[in-house]
Amino acid sequence: MISIGIEGTAHTIGVGIVKKKGQKCKVLSNLIKIYRPEKGGIHPREAANHHANHVADLIKESAEEAGVSFDELDIVSFSQGPGLGPCLRTAATAARALSLSTKKPLMGVNHCVAHIEIGRGTIDNCKDPVLLYTSGANTQVIGFAEGKYRVFGETLDIGIGNCLDKFGREVGLEFPCGPKIEKLALDGKKYLDLPYTIKGMDIAFSGLLTAAIQYFKSGESLEDICYSIQETTFAALTEVTERAMAHIEKKEVLLGGGVASNMRLRDMVKTMAEERGASFFVPNRSVCIDNGAMIAWLGALMYESGVRMKVENSIIDQRFRTDMVDVTWRE
Ligand code: AMP
Ligand code: MG
């Protein structure tokens, strides 16, 4: 079965084509274009305009690269939510148009669930992980329990990526700031005390963000602050992930989202996994960041398990929760 997927929840418009062979996912093509605001944060309308300008070309190029004609597609999948309304609508509109013009079935999918399924589909031995999903807007710890992907812990305010980007913007780093903070942190020597906020299984970052900006204003070294931000936020993420693994008795942990590129975060989660005798997985970068292949893959899983979607029921959902998805494709 061959599926094309269109991703458009936030700053990335992506189109990917995958082939489903049993439970394994073969990525045939996976192209993305990222909207980068000239200054400040992401403007939803401008991001959507960016996506609208690129999506048709990406669809064409993605099919060419995959060596697949539109005729050979079995379904057209798209990111139905959660995300920014204008961006979601742009991707959904492109998917509906492609579905109607090619007469291939349409499938809207949950973006967060796609991050976990692409790990299971592309990594050998990754079968039933807890996902630590760390992106710009989202921060969630997700695991499969009693028929659903459930959120065991999440941010109470901003996503971890957003926290890094906001701090970076305040101190004059260029977007995306996560990679720059990672580099600066390597030269950090002194740990500066920062709020470590875990409430139950949930995390909050805004107090830490304010305190970090205060340190910068009071003249502390940027390297030390970056180091301290990473140590504190990543420790909190690792702690919640470990508690979820213990609670639902999982022996695997999977990273997903843009912040999963960070080597210090990987190190901490890997160490935690090793100490528990669990396996640690990170998908290839191209399927770990926001991308169309993961959307295509989840669409294929859903379609094969019998899910159908009519165009008139394909409305986007900005607040599409992970645990609203009926997981029909696994036990
Ligand atoms: P996503 O929303 O999943 O596309 O991820 C984008 C976010 O990942 C942005 O907030 C980036 O700052 C962040 N990011 C990317 N690379 C790194 C890195 N190496 N370390 C920390 N954050 C990163
Ligand atoms: Mg994402």
Descriptive report:
- The protein is α/β, with parallel strands linked by helices and 331 residues long.
- The protein is built from ten helices and twelve strands.
- It has a five-stranded mixed beta sheet, with helices on both faces. It has a five-stranded mixed beta sheet with strand order 8-7-6-11-12, with helices on both faces. Strands 9-10 form a two-stranded antiparallel ribbon.
- A hairpin with a 2-residue loop joins β9 (197-199) and β10 (202-204).
- It starts with a strand and ends in a 27-residue tail after the last helix.
- The structure holds adenosine monophosphate and magnesium ion.
- Magnesium ion (MG) binds at residues 111, 115, 135, 257, 290.
Mean residue pLDDT: 97
Rg is: 20 Å
Stretches where pLDDT is under 50 for at least 5 consecutive residues are: none
Provide the helix percentage: 40-55%
Q: Quickly count the helices.
A: 10
Q: Please state how the strands of the largest beta sheet are arranged side by side.
A: 3-2-1-4-5
Shape: globular
Structural class, from helix and strand content? alpha/beta
How is the main sheet built? 5 strands, mixed
Taking the alpha carbons of the first and last residues, their distance comes to 21 Å
* Overall number of strands: 12
Name the hetero compounds present.
adenosine monophosphate, magnesium ion
SSE string, helices as H and strands as E: EEEHEHEHEEEHHEEHHEHEHH
β-sheet strand percentage: 15-25%
Summarize it.
With 331 residues, the protein is α/β, with parallel strands linked by helices.
What structural keywords apply?
5-stranded mixed β-sheet; about 20% strand; single chain; about 325 residues; alpha/beta
